[in-house]
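Example (one chain per record):
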Amino acid sequence: MLPHMLIPPVGAPPGFRFDIRPTATPDGVGTVRRLLRDALVAVQLDPDTPCLLLSELLTNALVHGGSASVIMELRAGCLLIAVADHSPARVERLPECSERTGGRGLALVEALADAWGVSPFGAGGKAVWASVAAA
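Predicted structure:
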């Protein structure tokens, strides 16, 4: 990644957009997370919460959908992360259960994001998105 290419002109609000189809592996999640971290650091924004949101959304899409497309866009002080897959399976936030070892990702997304939701994508798929104020 070339951080100097991410720095906006003087006086312009920081912004970027990435459209990515990562590999459907844990390495693919890490690669996209590092790209987001580098981009946010380059425009002097805290990457921790956005990177956690991205990891949850992308991992869910890869586990349940097999492949994913990712859009990460910073515009006007708001970061949007959208992860789409072609699976027709519904997205459900599971009720809390101390005995279950997984299924807490959407609760985490709900707690950390300013807003989140699910939108139709393609022929029967969906995009799960989250937005946070850039800080």
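Caption: The chain is about 30% helix and 25% strand.
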